[in-house]
Design goal:
The chain is an alpha+beta fold. The protein has a single domain, classed as PPM-type phosphatase domain (Phosphatase 2c, domain 1, 4-Layer Sandwich), CATH 3.60.40.10. It is built from eight helices and twelve strands. α2 runs antiparallel to α3.
Length: 277
C-alpha cells in the first residue's frame, strides 16, 4: 500500500462563487450562506471544503436569525472537527448540532415565544468525494457534461404526495402547497437529514441554492449558465439575477462550485492511500 506523498500527489482543486438577492418583494434577506476553505494542502486532506445554504422559513418569526445560526454552527464546527473524520458521518451530526442551536434560540430570553425555522443544504468535499446533507427544500444540483441532475429531494408535503403517486411532477411544481415543509431545522429538538455521497469528476459543477432560485429555473437553464467559461462569482450572480428576473417573489441565493481536479484515493482501515495510476 502506497501512502500519500503530500508534495507529489494531485490535489482536489475547486473554484467557487456565491451570490444572494432580496428579490423584488421582500424587504429583508432570510437566506444565509457560508463556507470553509482549507488554508493549506494538509488541511485540504484533513478536513476538506464545506459549502452551505440556509433559507429562513417565511411566515415565522426571525427567519434570518434561524438561517444565520445554522450556517454559523455548521461552518465553525466543521473547521473544529477532528482531522480525518469521515464526512458521511460528520455532516449529518453537524446538521443536528445546527438544529439544536436554532431550537435553543427559541428558548433564549430575547426570543422567548418566537417561532423560527430554516432549511439547510450542506456539501463537504474531500479527495474525490462530495457528501451532501440537507433538511427542507434548499437544493443541491450536480451539473456534469452539460446535464443538470437534482441531488437532493425536497422535504415538502407536495413532494411526498408526488412520491406516493398522488400528484404528477407537473402538478407538484404548480401546487399552491409546494412550499409546505415536512422537515426543517428548529421546531423540534431532533431532526433527520438526508445524506448522499457522490464521486466527483473534473469539470463537475455543484450548485447549492434556496427555493427562490429553483422555483424559477429549469434544470436546463441552470446547466446552461453554470457551464459557461466565466469566473465563478460572475456565474453565481448571473444565476441569481436570472431567477429574480423571472420571478423575484422570494430571496434568492446560490453557491456554485466547479471541480477543476480531484485526488483519487482508496480507503484501508479508514486511512486513504494512492490508487495505481
Amino acid at each position: 500500500m502506497e501512502q500519500i506523498n503530500e508534495a507529489a500527489a494531485p490535489m482536489l482543486d475547486v473554484q467557487f462563487g456565491q451570490a444572494s438577492d432580496f428579490g423584488k418583494v421582500r424587504t429583508n434577506n432570510e437566506d444565509a450562506m457560508g463556507s470553509f476553505v482549507p488554508a493549506s494542502r494538509h488541511q485540504a486532506r484533513s478536513h476538506g471544503y464545506l459549502f452551505a445554504v440556509a433559507d429562513g422559513v417565511g411566515g415565522m418569526d426571525l427567519g434570518e436569525v434561524a438561517s444565520a445560526t445554522a450556517i454559523s454552527v455548521i461552518t465553525e464546527e466543521f473547521a473544529k472537527a477532528q482531522a480525518g473524520t469521515m464526512l458521511i458521518s460528520l455532516l449529518p451530526r453537524l446538521i443536528q448540532h445546527a438544529n439544536a442551536a436554532v431550537h435553543d434560540c427559541t428558548l433564549a430570553s430575547e426570543y422567548r415565544g418566537k417561532k423560527m425555522a430554516t432549511t439547510l443544504v450542506a456539501c463537504a468535499l474531500r479527495y474525490d468525494q462530495a457528501i451532501v446533507s440537507h433538511v427542507g427544500d434548499s437544493r443541491c444540483y450536480l451539473v456534469r457534461g452539460g446535464q443538470c441532475k437534482q441531488v437532493t429531494q425536497d422535504h415538502t408535503w407536495v413532494n411526498e404526495q408526488r412520491k406516493l403517486g398522488l400528484l404528477t411532477a407537473s402538478e407538484a411544481a404548480e401546487s399552491d402547497s409546494r412550499h409546505i415543509l415536512i422537515r426543517s431545522l428548529g421546531p423540534q429538538m431532533f431532526v433527520s437529514p438526508d445524506t448522499t455521497a457522490l464521486t466527483l469528476q473534473p469539470d463537475d459543477v455543484l450548485v447549492l441554492c434556496s427555493d427562490g432560485l429553483h422555483d424559477s429555473m429549469s434544470n436546463s437553464a441552470i446547466a446552461e449558465i453554470v457551464s459557461q467559461k466565466k469566473p465563478m462569482d460572475e456565474i453565481a450572480r448571473e444565476l441569481v439575477a436570472h431567477a429574480v428576473e423571472i420571478d423575484g417573489g422570494d430571496n434568492t441565493t446560490a453557491q456554485v462550485v466547479r471541480i477543476r481536479a480531484v485526488e483519487q484515493v482508496g480507503m484501508y482501515r479508514g486511512r486513504p492511500y494512492r490508487l495505481p495510476s
